């Protein structure tokens, strides 16, 4: 018996009940998770060990990769273990923990992307004041703010879940615990809770996207006054960041900033958001960034020669 009702554990239905397809899910997600872990940890280690990657952009990229790695780790290992089980039980407390981690690191990724765009704005539009505005102390304060806002956002999700009574059934038609699938199981009118949920999660994604679009509009307008070489370099950096922003925030808005309506492709969008994006981000930042690739080669050369 649980204090919020008679349910103290849930059954995750996952992506499929077919044993053969479950094995395929295991293989695919295992490969993606290994790629995500290796890619993000490689960026984290490279930035930490390299003397050439000391600028604010790489300071924020370090935390973006850390958030991606932790975000993926909060979901995927459990998912591919569950794919080998016939029935996947998750306790109420484990469910809360997964929701907390999912939203903590997901929000952290969003806030870091916002601060990275602010860094690009200052570098391009206020170059004379860049070293003053984006000092080491300023960057540390921004990261502390990102962690604080992420924690507030995540703990709000937990508060909303704690208000839900669960009397049965306990089948979650999903591969992980999140507030929206749980709303369907609550034995109460969830209209107000859902509004709060959309306002909380949806607002984080939507407002961040609006801020990012405004900042890049200002940046692109200001580039008209720069030289061709400066424009080329700035556009290359901005294009990489805009690609990551769209990959992260568009699925996030689709999942969290809408009424509780179920679409056939919901799970595919969420798989892309929770598994595809953390896998793609390090690829985008390494393949399109000569400095990161050069630092990785130097680090690899030093490790081999030593």
UniProtKB/TrEMBL annotation:
<dbReference type="InterPro" id="IPR017452">
    <property type="entry name" value="GPCR_Rhodpsn_7TM"/>
</dbReference>
<dbReference type="Pfam" id="PF13853">
    <property type="entry name" value="7tm_4"/>
</dbReference>
<keyword id="KW-0297">G-protein coupled receptor</keyword>
<protein>
    <submittedName>
        <fullName>Olfactory receptor 4C11-like</fullName>
    </submittedName>
</protein>
<feature type="transmembrane region" description="Helical">
    <location>
        <begin position="191"/>
        <end position="214"/>
    </location>
</feature>
<feature type="transmembrane region" description="Helical">
    <location>
        <begin position="100"/>
        <end position="118"/>
    </location>
</feature>
<keyword id="KW-0472">Membrane</keyword>
<keyword id="KW-0807">Transducer</keyword>
<dbReference type="InterPro" id="IPR000276">
    <property type="entry name" value="GPCR_Rhodpsn"/>
</dbReference>
<feature type="transmembrane region" description="Helical">
    <location>
        <begin position="139"/>
        <end position="162"/>
    </location>
</feature>
<keyword id="KW-0812">Transmembrane</keyword>
<feature type="domain" description="G-protein coupled receptors family 1 profile">
    <location>
        <begin position="39"/>
        <end position="285"/>
    </location>
</feature>
<feature type="transmembrane region" description="Helical">
    <location>
        <begin position="57"/>
        <end position="80"/>
    </location>
</feature>
<keyword id="KW-1133">Transmembrane helix</keyword>
<keyword id="KW-0675">Receptor</keyword>
<feature type="transmembrane region" description="Helical">
    <location>
        <begin position="234"/>
        <end position="257"/>
    </location>
</feature>
<comment type="function">
    <text>Putative odorant or sperm cell receptor.</text>
</comment>
<dbReference type="InterPro" id="IPR050427">
    <property type="entry name" value="Olfactory_Receptors"/>
</dbReference>
<feature type="transmembrane region" description="Helical">
    <location>
        <begin position="269"/>
        <end position="287"/>
    </location>
</feature>
<feature type="transmembrane region" description="Helical">
    <location>
        <begin position="24"/>
        <end position="45"/>
    </location>
</feature>
<dbReference type="InterPro" id="IPR000725">
    <property type="entry name" value="Olfact_rcpt"/>
</dbReference>
């Amino acid at each position: 018996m649980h204090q919020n009702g008679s349910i103290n554990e849930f059954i995750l239905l996952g992506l499929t009940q077919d044993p053969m397809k479950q094995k395929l899910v295991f293989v695919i997600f295992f490969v993606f998770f290994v790629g995500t872990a290796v890619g993000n940890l490689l960026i984290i280690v490279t930035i930490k060990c390299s003397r050439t990657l000391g600028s604010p952009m790489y300071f924020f990229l370090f935390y973006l990769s850390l958030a991606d790695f932790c975000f993926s780790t909060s979901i995927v290992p459990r998912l591919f273990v569950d794919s080998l089980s016939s029935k996947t039980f998750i306790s109420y407390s484990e469910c809360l923990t997964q929701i907390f981690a999912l939203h903590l690191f997901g929000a952290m990724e969003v806030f870091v992307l916002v601060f990275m765009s602010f860094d690009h704005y200052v570098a391009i539009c206020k170059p004379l004041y860049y070293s003053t505005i984006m000092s080491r102390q300023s960057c540390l304060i921004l990261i502390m703010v990102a962690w604080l806002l992420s924690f507030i956002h995540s703990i709000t999700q937990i508060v909303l879940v704690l208000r839900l009574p669960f009397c049965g059934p306990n089948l979650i038609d999903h591969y992980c615990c999140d507030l929206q699938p749980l709303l369907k199981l609550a034995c109460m009118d969830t209209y107000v809770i859902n509004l709060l949920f959309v306002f909380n999660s949806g607002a984080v994604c939507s407002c961040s996207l609006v801020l990012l679009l405004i900042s890049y509009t200002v940046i692109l307008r200001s580039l008209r006054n720069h030289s061709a070489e400066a424009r080329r370099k700035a556009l290359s950096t901005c294009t990489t960041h805009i690609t990551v922003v769209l990959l992260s925030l568009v699925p996030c808005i689709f999942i969290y900033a809408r009424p509780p309506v179920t679409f056939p492709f919901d799970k595919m969008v969420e798989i892309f958001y929770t598994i595809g994006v953390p896998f793609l981000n390090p690829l985008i930042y390494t393949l399109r960034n000569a400095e990161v690739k050069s630092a990785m080669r130097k680090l690899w050369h030093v490790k081999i020669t030593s």
